[in-house]
């Protein structure tokens, strides 16, 4: 394959020395070697590339000039969920599941993945869904398990005894290493500082795997 000769080997070398993109500079040097009469294999070797890479560079240079020696910008990867679907998913998590409808009072990553597949026909691995939730501003938290039919009066009594130490703000509770995605509500510490009593007394939580 012939190489366009609007730039000489010397001009290509001068451009390569000023080029900030090392990959483009290597292609310039390789084409300069080829213009000086070296075989394509030797020109590629001297420039630290495969012969096929040099062939591709020649094709692009012939078609586009020097612009063809630079990598094309990569297209932005499409998000797994659309903006509307992401907003709906966040609302779903923060609202917490309904026992009668979803058969649970807490979301787990696998159960949320099933719900996403049901709602939008998109199947996500729980690990991928976890990344989606983080991008939506939902962080991981830890909560004690609560039976869906726990006595309401007992819960109210516990709330009166508990001492609040912070609030859940828009799905984020800083500096907590944990395993769940809480929905909303107050985090409280039990009477006399019992460390086992760190719970979410409102909303629900998503247990991560």
From TrEMBL:
Residues covered by the Insertion element IS150 protein InsJ-like helix-turn-helix domain: 30-77
- Winged helix-turn helix domain: which residues? 105-160
**The organism's lineage?**
Bacteria, Pseudomonadati, Pseudomonadota, Alphaproteobacteria, Rhodobacterales
Task: List, alphabetically, the InterPro entries matched.
Answer: Homeodomain-like_sf, InsJ-like_HTH, Winged_HTH_dom
Q: Which Pfam families match?
A: HTH_28, HTH_33
User: What's the name of the protein?
Assistant: Helix-turn-helix domain-containing protein
Domain of life, per UniProt, equals Bacteria
């Amino acid at each position: 394959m012939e190489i366009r000769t609007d730039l000489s080997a010397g001009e290509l070398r001068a451009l390569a020395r000023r080029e900030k993109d090392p990959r483009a500079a290597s292609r310039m040097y390789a084409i300069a070697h080829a213009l000086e009469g070296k075989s394509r294999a030797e020109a590629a070797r001297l420039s630290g590339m495969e012969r096929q890479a040099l062939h591709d560079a020649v094709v692009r240079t012939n078609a586009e000039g020097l612009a063809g020696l630079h990598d094309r910008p990569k297209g932005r990867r499409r998000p797994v969920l659309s903006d509307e679907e992401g907003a709906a998913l966040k609302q779903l998590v923060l609202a917490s599941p309904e026992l009668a409808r979803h058969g649970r009072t807490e979301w787990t990553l696998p159960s949320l993945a099933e719900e996403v597949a049901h709602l939008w026909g998109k199947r996500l691995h729980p690990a991928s869904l976890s990344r989606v939730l983080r991008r939506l501003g939902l962080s991981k938290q830890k909560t004690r398990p609560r039976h869906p039919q726990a006595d309401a009066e007992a819960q109210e009594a516990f709330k009166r005894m508990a001492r609040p130490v912070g609030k859940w703000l828009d799905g984020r509770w800083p500096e907590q290493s944990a395993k769940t995605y809480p929905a909303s509500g107050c985090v409280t510490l039990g009477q006399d500082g019992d460390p086992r009593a760190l719970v979410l007394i409102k909303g629900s939580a998503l247990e991560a795997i």
